[in-house]
Specification:
Helix content is 66%, strand content 0%. It is mainly α. Helix 6 packs across helix 7 and helix 10 runs parallel beside helix 13. The N terminus is likely disordered.
Length: 512
Protein backbone atom coordinates (compact mmCIF):
# COMPACT_ATOMS: atom_id res chain seq x y z
CA UNK A 1 0.00 0.00 0.00
CA UNK A 2 1.76 3.14 -1.15
CA UNK A 3 0.74 6.11 0.87
CA UNK A 4 1.40 9.68 -0.06
CA UNK A 5 0.17 12.58 1.96
CA UNK A 6 1.78 15.32 3.98
CA UNK A 7 1.26 17.54 6.92
CA UNK A 8 3.53 19.93 8.72
CA UNK A 9 4.54 23.56 8.78
CA UNK A 10 7.64 25.11 10.26
CA UNK A 11 9.05 28.44 9.18
CA UNK A 12 12.65 27.95 8.16
CA UNK A 13 13.24 30.79 5.76
CA UNK A 14 13.44 33.95 7.78
CA UNK A 15 16.69 35.59 6.69
CA UNK A 16 17.89 37.57 3.74
CA UNK A 17 17.63 35.99 0.29
CA UNK A 18 19.54 37.07 -2.79
CA UNK A 19 19.99 40.52 -1.28
CA UNK A 20 22.96 42.83 -1.05
CA UNK A 21 24.46 45.26 -3.51
CA UNK A 22 23.36 44.86 -7.07
CA UNK A 23 20.32 42.76 -6.24
CA UNK A 24 17.76 42.71 -9.01
CA UNK A 25 14.30 44.27 -8.61
CA UNK A 26 11.67 41.69 -7.81
CA UNK A 27 13.94 39.30 -5.98
CA UNK A 28 12.14 39.93 -2.69
CA UNK A 29 8.99 38.70 -4.41
CA UNK A 30 10.83 35.57 -5.53
CA UNK A 31 12.11 35.01 -2.03
CA UNK A 32 8.59 35.25 -0.66
CA UNK A 33 7.40 32.75 -3.24
CA UNK A 34 10.12 30.32 -2.21
CA UNK A 35 9.13 30.66 1.43
CA UNK A 36 5.52 29.93 0.57
CA UNK A 37 6.44 26.91 -1.53
CA UNK A 38 8.47 25.42 1.30
CA UNK A 39 5.75 26.19 3.81
CA UNK A 40 3.29 24.27 1.65
CA UNK A 41 5.78 21.44 1.41
CA UNK A 42 5.80 21.12 5.18
CA UNK A 43 2.05 21.59 5.45
CA UNK A 44 0.75 18.96 3.06
CA UNK A 45 0.60 15.74 5.06
CA UNK A 46 -3.00 15.71 6.28
CA UNK A 47 -5.38 16.19 3.38
CA UNK A 48 -5.21 12.92 1.48
CA UNK A 49 -7.18 10.20 3.21
CA UNK A 50 -6.67 6.48 3.11
CA UNK A 51 -10.26 5.30 2.98
CA UNK A 52 -10.33 1.70 1.86
CA UNK A 53 -12.58 -1.29 2.35
CA UNK A 54 -11.21 -4.33 4.15
CA UNK A 55 -11.56 -7.66 2.38
CA UNK A 56 -10.96 -10.43 4.89
CA UNK A 57 -8.91 -13.12 3.18
CA UNK A 58 -8.91 -15.88 5.73
CA UNK A 59 -11.73 -15.34 8.18
CA UNK A 60 -14.03 -17.81 6.42
CA UNK A 61 -11.36 -20.44 5.97
CA UNK A 62 -10.31 -20.32 9.62
CA UNK A 63 -13.70 -20.32 11.22
CA UNK A 64 -16.51 -21.13 8.84
CA UNK A 65 -15.57 -23.75 6.37
CA UNK A 66 -13.30 -22.53 3.60
CA UNK A 67 -15.76 -21.07 1.14
CA UNK A 68 -14.62 -20.41 -2.40
CA UNK A 69 -13.48 -16.94 -3.33
CA UNK A 70 -14.49 -15.37 -6.58
CA UNK A 71 -16.64 -12.77 -8.28
CA UNK A 72 -18.20 -14.74 -11.11
CA UNK A 73 -21.21 -13.16 -12.76
CA UNK A 74 -24.51 -14.37 -11.28
CA UNK A 75 -27.79 -13.98 -13.10
CA UNK A 76 -30.61 -12.11 -11.40
CA UNK A 77 -32.84 -15.19 -11.54
CA UNK A 78 -30.30 -17.24 -9.62
CA UNK A 79 -30.04 -14.57 -6.91
CA UNK A 80 -33.83 -14.54 -6.72
CA UNK A 81 -33.92 -18.32 -6.26
CA UNK A 82 -31.32 -18.07 -3.48
CA UNK A 83 -33.31 -15.36 -1.75
CA UNK A 84 -36.53 -17.40 -1.93
CA UNK A 85 -34.68 -20.37 -0.43
CA UNK A 86 -33.56 -18.42 2.61
CA UNK A 87 -36.91 -16.59 2.87
CA UNK A 88 -39.07 -19.72 2.84
CA UNK A 89 -36.78 -21.64 5.14
CA UNK A 90 -37.29 -24.96 3.37
CA UNK A 91 -34.31 -27.26 3.16
CA UNK A 92 -30.81 -26.27 4.23
CA UNK A 93 -31.12 -22.57 5.05
CA UNK A 94 -27.50 -22.33 6.16
CA UNK A 95 -26.35 -23.83 2.88
CA UNK A 96 -28.58 -21.43 0.96
CA UNK A 97 -27.08 -18.47 2.83
CA UNK A 98 -23.58 -19.66 2.02
CA UNK A 99 -24.45 -19.92 -1.65
CA UNK A 100 -25.86 -16.40 -1.45
CA UNK A 101 -22.72 -15.17 0.29
CA UNK A 102 -20.60 -16.54 -2.53
CA UNK A 103 -22.87 -14.88 -5.10
CA UNK A 104 -22.68 -11.52 -3.27
CA UNK A 105 -18.99 -11.29 -4.09
CA UNK A 106 -20.23 -10.09 -7.48
CA UNK A 107 -21.21 -6.40 -7.80
CA UNK A 108 -24.30 -6.98 -9.92
CA UNK A 109 -25.51 -9.72 -7.62
CA UNK A 110 -25.35 -7.31 -4.68
CA UNK A 111 -27.48 -4.78 -6.53
CA UNK A 112 -29.98 -7.45 -7.53
CA UNK A 113 -30.29 -8.65 -3.95
CA UNK A 114 -31.00 -5.29 -2.30
CA UNK A 115 -33.60 -4.46 -4.97
CA UNK A 116 -35.66 -7.48 -3.98
CA UNK A 117 -38.61 -6.73 -1.74
CA UNK A 118 -37.92 -7.32 1.96
CA UNK A 119 -34.47 -8.74 1.19
CA UNK A 120 -32.67 -6.83 3.94
CA UNK A 121 -35.44 -7.46 6.46
CA UNK A 122 -35.19 -11.20 5.84
CA UNK A 123 -31.39 -11.14 6.07
CA UNK A 124 -31.46 -9.14 9.29
CA UNK A 125 -34.01 -11.51 10.75
CA UNK A 126 -31.65 -14.41 10.14
CA UNK A 127 -28.71 -12.36 11.42
CA UNK A 128 -30.48 -11.91 14.77
CA UNK A 129 -31.91 -15.43 15.10
CA UNK A 130 -30.85 -17.88 17.82
CA UNK A 131 -29.36 -20.48 15.47
CA UNK A 132 -25.61 -19.83 15.47
CA UNK A 133 -24.86 -21.45 12.11
CA UNK A 134 -27.59 -19.46 10.39
CA UNK A 135 -26.56 -16.28 12.19
CA UNK A 136 -22.95 -16.61 11.09
CA UNK A 137 -23.92 -17.33 7.49
CA UNK A 138 -26.17 -14.24 7.47
CA UNK A 139 -23.34 -12.17 8.98
CA UNK A 140 -21.07 -13.23 6.12
CA UNK A 141 -23.70 -12.08 3.63
CA UNK A 142 -23.85 -8.69 5.34
CA UNK A 143 -20.08 -8.49 5.22
CA UNK A 144 -20.02 -9.18 1.47
CA UNK A 145 -22.57 -6.41 0.96
CA UNK A 146 -20.48 -4.01 3.03
CA UNK A 147 -17.49 -4.40 0.70
CA UNK A 148 -19.42 -2.63 -2.07
CA UNK A 149 -18.75 1.04 -2.77
CA UNK A 150 -22.26 1.54 -4.16
CA UNK A 151 -24.04 4.19 -2.00
CA UNK A 152 -27.40 2.44 -2.41
CA UNK A 153 -26.01 -0.74 -0.89
CA UNK A 154 -24.47 1.11 2.05
CA UNK A 155 -27.82 2.81 2.61
CA UNK A 156 -29.66 -0.52 2.56
CA UNK A 157 -27.15 -2.07 4.99
CA UNK A 158 -27.42 0.83 7.43
CA UNK A 159 -30.38 -0.99 8.95
CA UNK A 160 -27.88 -3.51 10.33
CA UNK A 161 -25.71 -1.10 12.33
CA UNK A 162 -27.78 -1.39 15.53
CA UNK A 163 -27.38 -5.16 15.60
CA UNK A 164 -23.73 -5.08 14.57
CA UNK A 165 -22.92 -2.69 17.40
CA UNK A 166 -24.81 -4.89 19.87
CA UNK A 167 -22.76 -7.93 18.91
CA UNK A 168 -19.48 -6.10 19.58
CA UNK A 169 -19.86 -7.08 23.22
CA UNK A 170 -20.57 -10.74 22.48
CA UNK A 171 -18.60 -13.81 23.51
CA UNK A 172 -17.25 -14.89 20.13
CA UNK A 173 -14.10 -12.97 19.18
CA UNK A 174 -14.39 -14.09 15.54
CA UNK A 175 -18.00 -12.91 15.32
CA UNK A 176 -17.01 -9.61 16.92
CA UNK A 177 -14.17 -9.27 14.41
CA UNK A 178 -16.53 -9.91 11.48
CA UNK A 179 -19.06 -7.38 12.83
CA UNK A 180 -16.31 -4.78 13.19
CA UNK A 181 -15.06 -5.14 9.63
CA UNK A 182 -18.62 -4.93 8.36
CA UNK A 183 -19.17 -1.72 10.32
CA UNK A 184 -15.87 -0.27 9.15
CA UNK A 185 -16.64 -0.99 5.52
CA UNK A 186 -20.06 0.64 5.82
CA UNK A 187 -18.63 3.68 7.58
CA UNK A 188 -15.78 4.14 5.10
CA UNK A 189 -17.65 6.24 2.56
CA UNK A 190 -21.12 6.92 4.00
CA UNK A 191 -21.69 9.95 6.20
CA UNK A 192 -25.23 8.76 6.91
CA UNK A 193 -23.96 5.45 8.26
CA UNK A 194 -21.34 7.19 10.43
CA UNK A 195 -23.96 9.54 11.86
CA UNK A 196 -26.26 6.65 12.65
CA UNK A 197 -23.46 4.69 14.29
CA UNK A 198 -22.57 7.61 16.55
CA UNK A 199 -26.19 8.08 17.62
CA UNK A 200 -26.33 4.38 18.45
CA UNK A 201 -23.33 4.56 20.80
CA UNK A 202 -20.55 3.36 18.53
CA UNK A 203 -17.73 5.16 20.34
CA UNK A 204 -18.11 3.43 23.75
CA UNK A 205 -18.48 0.07 22.01
CA UNK A 206 -15.36 0.64 19.92
CA UNK A 207 -13.39 1.72 22.98
CA UNK A 208 -14.49 -1.55 24.59
CA UNK A 209 -13.14 -3.49 21.60
CA UNK A 210 -9.86 -1.55 21.50
CA UNK A 211 -9.19 -2.96 24.98
CA UNK A 212 -10.04 -6.54 23.97
CA UNK A 213 -7.55 -9.27 24.78
CA UNK A 214 -7.67 -10.69 21.24
CA UNK A 215 -5.27 -8.93 18.87
CA UNK A 216 -7.51 -9.65 15.87
CA UNK A 217 -10.42 -7.83 17.54
CA UNK A 218 -8.15 -4.89 18.44
CA UNK A 219 -7.00 -4.71 14.82
CA UNK A 220 -10.57 -4.74 13.49
CA UNK A 221 -11.62 -2.11 16.03
CA UNK A 222 -8.65 0.02 14.96
CA UNK A 223 -9.86 -0.20 11.38
CA UNK A 224 -13.35 1.09 12.31
CA UNK A 225 -11.91 3.85 14.50
CA UNK A 226 -9.58 4.98 11.72
CA UNK A 227 -12.52 5.28 9.32
CA UNK A 228 -14.35 7.49 11.81
CA UNK A 229 -11.30 9.62 12.69
CA UNK A 230 -10.52 10.49 9.08
CA UNK A 231 -14.09 11.38 8.16
CA UNK A 232 -14.56 14.97 6.93
CA UNK A 233 -16.83 15.71 9.87
CA UNK A 234 -14.56 14.07 12.46
CA UNK A 235 -13.06 17.22 13.99
CA UNK A 236 -16.41 18.55 15.17
CA UNK A 237 -17.69 15.69 17.31
CA UNK A 238 -16.02 12.36 16.61
CA UNK A 239 -12.43 13.15 17.63
CA UNK A 240 -13.39 15.13 20.78
CA UNK A 241 -15.61 12.23 21.85
CA UNK A 242 -12.83 9.69 21.39
CA UNK A 243 -10.34 11.90 23.24
CA UNK A 244 -12.81 12.32 26.12
CA UNK A 245 -12.70 8.55 26.46
CA UNK A 246 -8.89 8.52 26.44
CA UNK A 247 -8.32 6.96 23.00
CA UNK A 248 -4.86 8.47 22.58
CA UNK A 249 -3.69 7.04 25.90
CA UNK A 250 -5.08 3.60 25.08
CA UNK A 251 -3.31 3.67 21.72
CA UNK A 252 -0.02 4.59 23.37
CA UNK A 253 -0.41 1.76 25.89
CA UNK A 254 -0.98 -0.70 23.06
CA UNK A 255 2.05 0.59 21.14
CA UNK A 256 4.09 0.03 24.26
CA UNK A 257 3.48 -3.73 24.00
CA UNK A 258 3.90 -3.78 20.22
CA UNK A 259 5.78 -7.10 20.16
CA UNK A 260 2.65 -8.93 21.39
CA UNK A 261 0.15 -7.48 18.94
CA UNK A 262 1.62 -8.15 15.51
CA UNK A 263 2.43 -5.89 12.61
CA UNK A 264 -1.07 -5.59 11.12
CA UNK A 265 -2.70 -4.68 14.43
CA UNK A 266 -0.03 -2.12 15.22
CA UNK A 267 -0.47 -0.59 11.79
CA UNK A 268 -4.18 0.05 12.33
CA UNK A 269 -3.49 1.61 15.73
CA UNK A 270 -0.67 3.78 14.38
CA UNK A 271 -2.94 5.19 11.67
CA UNK A 272 -5.54 6.01 14.34
CA UNK A 273 -2.90 7.92 16.27
CA UNK A 274 -1.86 9.69 13.07
CA UNK A 275 -5.40 10.91 12.40
CA UNK A 276 -5.65 12.24 15.95
CA UNK A 277 -2.37 14.14 15.59
CA UNK A 278 -3.47 15.54 12.23
CA UNK A 279 -6.68 16.87 13.71
CA UNK A 280 -7.26 20.27 15.25
CA UNK A 281 -7.61 18.69 18.67
CA UNK A 282 -6.25 20.51 21.68
CA UNK A 283 -2.57 19.56 21.99
CA UNK A 284 -2.63 19.33 25.78
CA UNK A 285 -5.68 17.08 25.66
CA UNK A 286 -3.89 15.02 23.02
CA UNK A 287 -0.84 14.32 25.24
CA UNK A 288 1.50 15.39 22.46
CA UNK A 289 4.65 14.85 24.54
CA UNK A 290 3.76 11.22 25.23
CA UNK A 291 2.97 10.60 21.57
CA UNK A 292 6.30 12.04 20.49
CA UNK A 293 8.24 9.91 22.95
CA UNK A 294 6.37 6.69 22.19
CA UNK A 295 6.56 7.03 18.40
CA UNK A 296 10.27 7.80 18.63
CA UNK A 297 10.79 4.80 20.90
CA UNK A 298 8.93 2.38 18.61
CA UNK A 299 10.72 3.65 15.50
CA UNK A 300 14.06 3.30 17.25
CA UNK A 301 13.32 -0.28 18.28
CA UNK A 302 12.07 -1.19 14.81
CA UNK A 303 15.20 0.27 13.22
CA UNK A 304 17.39 -1.70 15.63
CA UNK A 305 15.50 -4.86 14.69
CA UNK A 306 16.02 -4.13 10.98
CA UNK A 307 19.75 -3.64 11.54
CA UNK A 308 19.79 -7.00 13.36
CA UNK A 309 18.31 -8.73 10.33
CA UNK A 310 14.55 -8.47 10.72
CA UNK A 311 12.68 -8.51 7.41
CA UNK A 312 11.20 -5.17 6.36
CA UNK A 313 8.35 -6.78 4.41
CA UNK A 314 5.15 -5.01 5.38
CA UNK A 315 6.98 -2.72 7.79
CA UNK A 316 6.50 0.30 5.53
CA UNK A 317 2.80 0.64 6.43
CA UNK A 318 3.65 0.84 10.14
CA UNK A 319 6.67 3.12 9.84
CA UNK A 320 4.75 5.66 7.74
CA UNK A 321 2.07 6.70 10.30
CA UNK A 322 4.63 6.77 13.11
CA UNK A 323 6.85 9.09 11.09
CA UNK A 324 3.89 11.30 10.29
CA UNK A 325 2.93 11.57 13.94
CA UNK A 326 6.41 12.91 14.73
CA UNK A 327 6.52 15.20 11.71
CA UNK A 328 3.09 16.64 12.38
CA UNK A 329 3.81 17.32 16.04
CA UNK A 330 7.07 19.03 15.12
CA UNK A 331 5.23 21.14 12.57
CA UNK A 332 2.84 22.67 15.07
CA UNK A 333 4.13 25.88 16.59
CA UNK A 334 2.26 25.22 19.84
CA UNK A 335 4.16 21.94 20.30
CA UNK A 336 7.71 23.22 19.82
CA UNK A 337 8.49 21.91 23.28
CA UNK A 338 8.01 18.38 21.90
CA UNK A 339 11.50 18.67 20.45
CA UNK A 340 12.89 18.53 23.95
CA UNK A 341 11.49 15.03 24.33
CA UNK A 342 13.18 13.63 21.23
CA UNK A 343 16.33 11.53 21.47
CA UNK A 344 18.18 13.21 18.62
CA UNK A 345 20.79 10.62 17.72
CA UNK A 346 18.45 7.65 18.06
CA UNK A 347 15.73 9.17 15.90
CA UNK A 348 18.17 10.35 13.24
CA UNK A 349 19.80 6.92 13.13
CA UNK A 350 16.38 5.27 12.75
CA UNK A 351 15.40 7.61 9.93
CA UNK A 352 18.54 6.79 7.96
CA UNK A 353 18.12 3.05 8.56
CA UNK A 354 14.63 3.21 7.08
CA UNK A 355 15.76 5.30 4.12
CA UNK A 356 18.43 2.77 3.30
CA UNK A 357 16.14 -0.23 3.84
CA UNK A 358 13.23 1.02 1.73
CA UNK A 359 15.15 2.84 -0.98
CA UNK A 360 14.79 0.14 -3.63
CA UNK A 361 11.16 -0.93 -3.22
CA UNK A 362 9.24 1.69 -1.22
CA UNK A 363 10.43 5.13 -2.19
CA UNK A 364 7.46 6.74 -0.47
CA UNK A 365 8.99 5.79 2.90
CA UNK A 366 12.17 7.64 1.91
CA UNK A 367 10.07 10.73 1.18
CA UNK A 368 8.35 10.39 4.57
CA UNK A 369 11.73 10.13 6.31
CA UNK A 370 13.06 13.19 4.50
CA UNK A 371 9.93 15.15 5.34
CA UNK A 372 10.40 14.40 9.04
CA UNK A 373 14.09 15.24 8.75
CA UNK A 374 13.10 18.55 7.17
CA UNK A 375 10.81 19.35 10.08
CA UNK A 376 13.47 18.31 12.58
CA UNK A 377 16.18 20.51 11.07
CA UNK A 378 13.97 23.51 10.24
CA UNK A 379 15.25 26.34 12.44
CA UNK A 380 16.86 23.90 14.89
CA UNK A 381 20.66 24.28 15.23
CA UNK A 382 20.83 21.28 17.53
CA UNK A 383 19.40 18.82 15.03
CA UNK A 384 21.43 20.38 12.23
CA UNK A 385 24.57 19.86 14.28
CA UNK A 386 23.66 16.24 14.90
CA UNK A 387 23.21 15.58 11.18
CA UNK A 388 26.72 16.93 10.60
CA UNK A 389 28.37 15.26 13.58
CA UNK A 390 26.88 11.87 12.70
CA UNK A 391 28.30 12.32 9.17
CA UNK A 392 24.89 11.84 7.56
CA UNK A 393 25.32 14.42 4.79
CA UNK A 394 27.09 12.00 2.39
CA UNK A 395 24.10 9.66 2.64
CA UNK A 396 21.80 12.57 1.80
CA UNK A 397 23.90 13.61 -1.19
CA UNK A 398 23.60 10.09 -2.61
CA UNK A 399 19.82 10.58 -2.75
CA UNK A 400 20.07 13.58 -5.08
CA UNK A 401 19.88 11.29 -8.11
CA UNK A 402 16.37 10.14 -7.13
CA UNK A 403 13.40 12.01 -8.53
CA UNK A 404 9.77 12.11 -7.42
CA UNK A 405 10.38 14.79 -4.81
CA UNK A 406 13.22 12.98 -3.05
CA UNK A 407 16.00 15.23 -4.34
CA UNK A 408 13.98 18.37 -3.61
CA UNK A 409 13.49 17.28 0.00
CA UNK A 410 17.20 16.51 0.34
CA UNK A 411 18.07 19.99 -0.90
CA UNK A 412 15.56 21.53 1.50
CA UNK A 413 17.15 19.73 4.45
CA UNK A 414 20.58 20.94 3.32
CA UNK A 415 19.19 24.48 3.14
CA UNK A 416 17.99 24.13 6.72
CA UNK A 417 21.54 23.25 7.76
CA UNK A 418 23.20 25.94 5.65
CA UNK A 419 20.99 28.63 7.12
CA UNK A 420 22.58 28.08 10.52
CA UNK A 421 25.71 30.00 9.48
CA UNK A 422 29.36 29.81 8.56
CA UNK A 423 30.43 26.76 10.58
CA UNK A 424 27.56 24.69 9.22
CA UNK A 425 28.21 25.76 5.63
CA UNK A 426 31.88 24.94 6.02
CA UNK A 427 31.00 21.41 7.08
CA UNK A 428 28.65 21.01 4.11
CA UNK A 429 31.39 22.11 1.72
CA UNK A 430 33.81 19.60 3.24
CA UNK A 431 31.32 16.81 2.46
CA UNK A 432 31.41 17.51 -1.29
CA UNK A 433 28.16 19.46 -1.45
CA UNK A 434 29.40 21.83 -4.17
CA UNK A 435 30.18 19.10 -6.75
CA UNK A 436 26.74 17.67 -6.05
CA UNK A 437 25.14 21.06 -6.67
CA UNK A 438 27.01 21.38 -9.95
CA UNK A 439 25.15 18.24 -11.03
CA UNK A 440 21.69 19.19 -9.71
CA UNK A 441 21.84 22.61 -11.37
CA UNK A 442 21.91 20.80 -14.72
CA UNK A 443 18.89 18.61 -13.98
CA UNK A 444 15.62 19.01 -15.89
CA UNK A 445 13.38 19.22 -12.80
CA UNK A 446 12.64 22.87 -12.17
CA UNK A 447 12.11 22.43 -8.43
CA UNK A 448 15.53 20.84 -8.16
CA UNK A 449 17.21 23.68 -10.04
CA UNK A 450 15.47 26.35 -7.96
CA UNK A 451 16.26 24.69 -4.65
CA UNK A 452 19.87 24.10 -5.74
CA UNK A 453 20.31 27.83 -6.33
CA UNK A 454 18.71 28.49 -2.94
CA UNK A 455 21.32 26.28 -1.28
CA UNK A 456 24.13 27.75 -3.36
CA UNK A 457 23.20 31.27 -2.27
CA UNK A 458 23.19 30.26 1.40
CA UNK A 459 26.61 28.62 1.10
CA UNK A 460 28.12 31.68 -0.59
CA UNK A 461 26.42 34.10 1.78
CA UNK A 462 27.75 32.42 4.94
CA UNK A 463 30.98 31.04 3.48
CA UNK A 464 32.27 33.35 0.68
CA UNK A 465 35.44 31.32 0.28
CA UNK A 466 33.35 28.51 -1.20
CA UNK A 467 33.10 30.42 -4.46
CA UNK A 468 36.64 29.44 -5.46
CA UNK A 469 35.89 25.73 -5.21
CA UNK A 470 32.62 26.17 -7.05
CA UNK A 471 34.48 27.74 -9.96
CA UNK A 472 36.65 24.63 -10.26
CA UNK A 473 33.48 22.60 -10.92
CA UNK A 474 32.48 24.75 -13.92
CA UNK A 475 30.04 26.57 -11.66
CA UNK A 476 30.18 29.90 -13.49
CA UNK A 477 29.50 28.27 -16.83
CA UNK A 478 26.54 26.35 -15.39
CA UNK A 479 24.98 29.51 -13.94
CA UNK A 480 25.57 31.35 -17.19
CA UNK A 481 23.67 28.63 -19.04
CA UNK A 482 20.76 29.14 -16.65
CA UNK A 483 20.72 32.76 -17.85
CA UNK A 484 19.10 31.38 -21.00
CA UNK A 485 16.50 29.32 -19.12
CA UNK A 486 12.85 29.79 -20.09
CA UNK A 487 11.92 30.29 -16.43
CA UNK A 488 12.31 33.97 -15.50
CA UNK A 489 12.69 33.19 -11.79
CA UNK A 490 15.71 31.05 -12.52
CA UNK A 491 17.26 33.75 -14.65
CA UNK A 492 16.85 36.20 -11.76
CA UNK A 493 18.27 33.76 -9.23
CA UNK A 494 21.31 32.87 -11.31
CA UNK A 495 21.92 36.54 -12.13
CA UNK A 496 21.87 37.45 -8.46
CA UNK A 497 24.35 34.69 -7.56
CA UNK A 498 26.69 35.59 -10.42
CA UNK A 499 26.77 39.30 -9.61
CA UNK A 500 26.52 39.22 -5.83
CA UNK A 501 28.80 36.30 -5.01
CA UNK A 502 30.91 35.55 -8.07
CA UNK A 503 31.56 39.06 -9.39
CA UNK A 504 30.36 38.12 -12.85
CA UNK A 505 28.40 40.24 -15.33
CA UNK A 506 24.88 38.94 -15.86
CA UNK A 507 23.34 38.55 -19.29
CA UNK A 508 19.86 38.71 -17.85
CA UNK A 509 19.06 42.08 -19.42
CA UNK A 510 19.53 40.54 -22.81
CA UNK A 511 16.89 37.95 -22.02
CA UNK A 512 14.16 40.33 -20.91
Amino acid sequence: MEVTCFHGARKRLQGDRYGGPGAHPGLEHLRSQRREIEKVLRNARRDQQLISKRVIQDIEEQEWGGLEHGSEAVEHEKVLLMFKAIQQGTGDRTGALRCLQKALKNCEARKSFIRMENSMQVLLGLFTCNQSAVQIAAALCLYELSVSSDPSIASACSQATTYLLTYLRGQSSKFTELSLYTLGNLAADSKAVRKKMLLQGAIPSLMFCIQNTHAAVVQAAGYVVSQLLQAPEASEKIIPAFLDMGLDQHLLQLLQCYSDLGLETLTELAWCLHYLVCSDADRVHLHAHDIMMKCTSVLTELAAAVVSGMSVDGLEVLVTPLLRCIGNLLAKEETDCCRERVEHNQLLAAIFVFMQSFLQHHMFVVRECLWVLNNLTAGDPSFCSDVLHLNLVPALLQLLVYTGGVNVLVLTVLCNIAEQGHAYCLQLIKTETLPALSATLKMLEQEVVGQSMELLHLLFKHCPEATNEFKTHSGIQILEMIQYHSNEKFRLQSASILETHLGQYSHIDNQQ
